[in-house]
Structures are given as C-alpha cells and as structure tokens.
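Please predict the structure of the following assembly.
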Amino acid sequence: MKPRRYTSRDLAIPAEVLAPKLIGAVLRRTLPDGMVLTGRIVETEAYMGADDRCSHAYNGRRTPRNEAMYGRAGLAYVYFTYGMHHCVNVVCGEEGVAVAVLIRALEPLTGLEAMRRLRGGRKNLRDRDLCSGPGKLCQALAIDRALNAADLTADGPLTLLHGPSTPVLVNAPRIGVGDHEPWSFAPLRWYDPRSGHVSVRSKSEH
DNA sequence: GCACCGATCGCCT
DNA sequence: GGCGATCGGTGCT
C-alpha cells in the first residue's frame, strides 16, 4: 500500500493537537544517492509560540535562525544546538504564527545499516540507540541546517507520511527545557510507551 | 567585541 | 546520576 503524504492542510492545526497525532506517523529521508531511510515517530513535543517561555519564538522573537517557524504549515524547522547537535521540528498552525512540533524519537523501519554508519558506525550500537533522541535521529537521517525550511509535504529529501496505526499515548512534561515555570511542567510531550525507542521514560513505567 | 548558555549526547563513576 | 564537549545564536556592553 502506498504511503500517503501529510498535506499542509493536515498540519495547519495547533501544536498541542498535532503533537499527539504525529505519534505513529512516518518520517522518510531520501539521501542524495537515492537511499531511503524511514522511521516511525514515537515521541514528540509541542512548542506553543510567543507565549511559551521554552520556545525559540518566545516573546515574539523572530531572527534568521527561527524564521522557518513563521512559515507555512509543513515546513521543517531545523536548528543547531549544544555546539554539535541538530533538532528537527514540523512547523504547524497558521502561517505567521511560530508554532511547531519537535520530533524527539523514531523507531527505525528501513535503512538501519545506513543509519548506523551515519551515527558513527560504532560497534555495539543497538537499534534502540539509533534514533532515541532529537540529536540522534538527525544524525541517523543526515538532517542538518541544509534541510531547514524544507517542505515535508513534498516528495523531496524529507517527507512526512501517515502511519497505519493509532498507538497508545502517554502525555508528560517536556525534556530539557530548563526552569521556566509554568511552561517547564506543562504536559506538552507525547510518546508511545510500548516503543523501546523513546528517549526518556518516566519512572512509574515498568 | 564579548560572555553566556542551550528543545543533547556519550562516557565516566 | 554526573559532567565535559563544542560552537552558533543572542543580547548586552
């Protein structure tokens, strides 16, 4: 069955509505040599725009770095952080409003050997270590700032596809967002607790 | 010009 | 569980 691409219309909804919907969706990366890497999204976070103290667009901040967040729903917002990692977001909501969903973890589906090479080719790197974090998945899929503002709804290098299933979800506070109450504790993270590929799981799970 | 620090990761204890 | 790596973005002097 041919996978169906997300459309800009599908994505022109609030971040806290889209983030849980994207669990189970598929991110497809087509490398310049034609190799196709895919992964099932198992963890996301919503970033709520100008009011959200944890967002790059807090207080209306608009700079060359975060310009893509103000674009049309369906663009990718890719940024560089900690001097060595990239993270990828799905821009959503209305054009001109800087809301987005961070993709935090994937369950690799195809192209695992290429992902392993891109992750440094270390021996003893388990499948669950390939894409279980926002920086890891960007490394595994060769996503960097060259893909900032790429159109995820097009048949291009990076594409968002509908998944076949609607998984069980856990809703929890976001990760690594610092001390910005009340936003730090707002339950704007979603993940599939049955996946072994989530970045961080809560203590109460067994 | 310059200081601070981050939507992280991997290695060490 | 702790911490160092590493550097671009941002905002202040």
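The helical segments of chain A are 8-11, 15-21, 112-118, 134-140. Residues 45, 47, 54-56, 79, 81-85, 87, 89, 102, 104, 133-136, 139, 174-178, 199 of chain A lie near DNA strand B (CB under 10 Å from a C1').
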